[in-house]
Amino acid sequence: MEALFGKTLSELKDITAENGLPSFSAKQMAQWLYQKNVTSIDGMTNLSKKAREQLKEKYEVGRIAPSKVQASVDGTKKYLYPAHKGLFIEAAYIPERDRHTLCISSQVGCKMGCLFCMTGKQGFQSQLTAGEMVNQVLSLPESDQLTNIVYMGMGEPMDNIENVLKSLEIFTSEWGMAWSPRRINVSTIGVEPAMRRFIEESNAHLAISLHTPFNEERQKLMPIEQVYPIEQVIDALREYDFGRQRRISFEYIMFAGVNDTPAHVKGLSKLLNGLRCRINLIRFHPIPDSPLRGSSHETMEWFSNELNKKGLTTTIRRSRGEDIFAACGLLSTKNMVKQNP
Ligand code: SF4
């Protein structure tokens, strides 16, 4: 059975055409799937009985509830969702006072091998479908409370750009969930060609994982630097007009003695000169078998002040969900495979 969940309006139109159904049924189906939370084709009650029977021969809705939840002392929750092939993914729900964010995954595992990331250690297992990305949002028990979606969970979104763009279309279209793209942030380590496509085909915010302004150092932390050096990625960003509404931010995990020195302040100021952006300074959560350690709070404060003096806007991110391995860089489902897929 093929899942209807994750189909765009134009794909639903193809399905109606192939099955001899009126084309307006495609919009009705989209509304059932993305606005009325239907869980079965039988629930699509404004489609004729004959149409529903016909659809049921080949399709199912394909919504999947999370199979496990872990709650942190700070209110963060980590949800485990079954994916195809008996695999699993994680999504982190981060409630704050007036902001309720869901951090979603775009792949099972990741092939990019960043040194500081548990998902990287898991290796690449599979791409997620657009339906599996949208499902993390709509099947979340707190779905109605969400104000923001960030693609910062497992995987590199630009390595699954087709499905990421499709999921963004579903999130932001009037026939879909009608979210403002300004409430969605997609991260990348700087996979330039797909990043350009994302900038051109979507209006969501963009977050770049930067972590150091220096090539050699970045290569050690993030092998992608050998393919798309950070200056090249930033030059690419300078070609686009992001307008006043769309935001570029840089994620900067702070490692003690590695990327938290005066030279790094200078390097960042040179690299990002003139670019309207924000730098998010993130505390490092140590992972097993890694020599990296996080910078102290004092160093982070100092680093932030120095960058501010150079005219760069910074935020020190509060760490959330570390005790349940839901914090930045800690998501992994390496050893989880469903027994009877
Ligand atoms: Fe992949 Fe992102 Fe982890 Fe790098 S930081 S290994 S791109 S999930």
Share in helix: 25-40%
CATH architecture of the largest domain: Alpha-Beta Barrel
The strand order across the widest sheet is: 3-4-5-6-9-10-11-12-13-14
Question: What's the β-strand tally?
Answer: 14
Number of helices: 11
**Unreliable stretches, pLDDT < 50, 5 or more residues?**
none
Please summarize the sheet with the most strands.
Answer: 10 strands, mixed
In words, what does this structure look like?
It contains eleven helices and 14 strands. By secondary structure, it is of the alpha/beta class. The chain folds into two domains: 2-60, DNA polymerase, domain 1; 68-338, Aldolase class I (TIM Barrel), CATH 3.20.20. The strands form three sheets. A ten-stranded mixed β-sheet has the order 3-4-5-6-9-10-11-12-13-14, with helices on one face. Strands 1-2 form a two-stranded parallel sheet. The chain has a two-stranded antiparallel sheet with strand order 7-8. α5 (130-138) crosses α6 (161-172). The longest helix is centred in the last third of the chain and has 13 residues, at 297-309.
